[in-house]
Amino acid sequence: MRLTGVGRRYGRRRPWVLRGIGVELPPGALVRVEGGNGGGKSTLLRLIAGIDTPTEGRITGRPPRTAYVPERFPAVLPLTAAAYLTHLGRVHGLTGAEAARRAADGLERFGAARFARTPMADLSKGTSQKVAVAQALLADPGLLVLDEAWTGLDASARAELDRAVTERTAAGATVVFVDHDPARLSGLPHAHYRLRGATLEAAAEPPAPRSAAPLRTTPAAVPAGVPVVPADGPGVPLAAAVVPAGAAAVRIHAVGPPGSVPPVGALAAPGGGIWLTVGAGLSDSVLRGLLTARPSWHIRSVEELP
């Protein structure tokens, strides 16, 4: 997806909110956007999601399935939470049964299952936001746009949304997000931009830690038969991931389908499933391998280790 010379203003004599925006958003990328209050972040995200149109310039390559979550979700609808999600699933082309199943799964995942039959207008702000997040993930969007989507969620739902973002990028979707918490998904974004004076610029990233210490080797994190792209060549299944001492590592808690064979070097996790530890640079490839395996693995958590 690409934005070329994109600008937006609300009236011919009004100042430009955005001007000359040019950026490429590749598949599988996690993109963070920052900027001051009133600086145009929400306007940019609405343009990316296709909710608004640019005054000038063009946007091309938007995936056919796009999902958007605003900071405040308008919940004044004459439907229950489950009926609303099921209806949206049908709009996305799912069968009625599949839409209802995904609606129930989404509410359960974000801790809102007990509100399935509650009218949307009667939901609290936090529960409405959980429904908003669930609707965004209903049909496996190729583009997920999150505008302060974590606001109003409890700690458990925020962590679940973090996991969902990681799952979507690992599956090849593009995720663009704004959040007031600078630690949100820290260390994971592939690109980091800042809006300044109606223009978009690359934000400075802190340098990666370096160490002259010897290398340490962590166990493999690749399910049998799932190719992962290592640094020295494509399509080669890894037997071990080499992580420089002091460099970032990621621990993945995954649960395999019934009868699945645990990856070589995996450790049993308390409560079921396995722990996989890999260098941060390989985590996307590993997650993609787990999620696209047939049958696929379920990712319970992804956390960055010191």
From TrEMBL:
The keyword ATP-binding applies. One of its GO terms (molecular function) is ATP binding. Residues 1-221 form the ABC transporter domain. Keywords: ATP-binding, Nucleotide-binding, Transport. It comes from Streptomyces racemochromogenes. It comes from the Bacteria. PANTHER family: ABC TRANSPORTER ATP-BINDING PROTEIN ALBC-RELATED. PROSITE patterns: ABC_TRANSPORTER_2. This is ATP-binding cassette domain-containing protein. It holds the Pfam family ABC_tran.
